[in-house]
Amino acid sequence: MPEDNNPQSPGNQPRVSVDNAEPSKSVSSQNVIQPTQELVQNIPSQQPQIVQSAVVGDISPPDSNITPLQPQTVSNQAGTSPSGQLQVGMSASQMGWSQSNVNRSWFNLKKLILYCIVVLIVLGGIFAVLVSTNIIALSKFKTIDYVNSKGTHYSLSFYTKHGTKLLNSGNTELVSKVSAEGKFPITLSIDNGDQNGYNRVKNCGNLTKLSEIQNNNLNQKISLCSIPLGNNIPSGVYVAGIMFNNQASIITIGQDLSHTDISSQASAKQSLTKFGIDSYQDDITKIIASIKIQ
Fold it and tell me: By three-state DSSP, how is residue 287 classified?
């Protein structure tokens, strides 16, 4: 059989050892870049880094273009951070509450209380003066003491708003400042009398008897009589008599005519409509029933 000289024949391929094999031309022909020693030294270490908390203070910047970190300062406002939030764990002085502020607040409170007390005292004094001078009436009637020109002492209920007037006889007259139905206010005076004078008014005699008033303080009934001033004024003056401990007292009730205007005929005519004390009938009954002789 002729010898096969084809080197590509599978049976004639030489056996190549793997250990002694040379790199192929495709690998050997490439340019492989080997790292230099300087590059290896500059490679950062792959070890894990521990994150540390930031320290407030000046930090040297790695780059001159970076602004250094400045420490934060607490806002001057009490209890707030620069962002406006309340900071936890702050002391009273940091929150704006110092001992001087507390003392100042207490001092201002005491000043306010003292001021209110002074105002109340002043207002109370003014109110007391107005009440005592009958400018302000807490009630329509009040008990007053009355002393006539003979020195006899009486106690009776009369209008809280009233004044006094000295008569020509020397006696004192109580003058009311309360008007009823637009009529002139009434007046009252009590004078000592004798037996004859008392007999004329005891049962009104020739006068018009209006009523009998029970006075429990004196334990007697008192007749109220009317003295007409004219045809148009049938009840211009009221009179009544009291007998107590053999001492007669004559009560006279009229009207305060000090404000009568007779400057013109029209004014005088208008004043005539203010005469008459019939509108005070109930008040007069109350007054006479309250009289005491001391």
Answer: helix
Task: Count CB atoms within 10 A of the CB of residue 44.
Answer: 6
Q: CB 210: neighbour CB atoms within 10 A?
A: 18
Which residue is associated with the tokens 């009369």? Answer: 158
- Beta-bridge partner residues of 163: 175
Mean pLDDT of 230-243: 76
Supply the DSSP symbol for 7. Answer: T
Stated as kind and residue range, the H or E segment containing 240 is strand 237-244
Report the alpha-carbon distance of residue 243 to residue 219 in Å, rounded.
Answer: 10
Residue 37 φ/ψ, nearest 5 degrees: -65, -35
Which of 173, 147, 177, 148 shows the shortest CA–CA distance to 162?
177
The predicted-structure confidence for 84-128, as pLDDT tens digits, reads as follows 555 555 555 555 555 566 667 777 888 888 888 988 888 888 877
Long-range (24+ apart) CB contacts under 8 A made by 157-165 are 157/286, 157/287, 157/290, 158/188, 158/287, 159/283, 160/134, 161/134, 161/135, 161/137, 162/134, 163/134
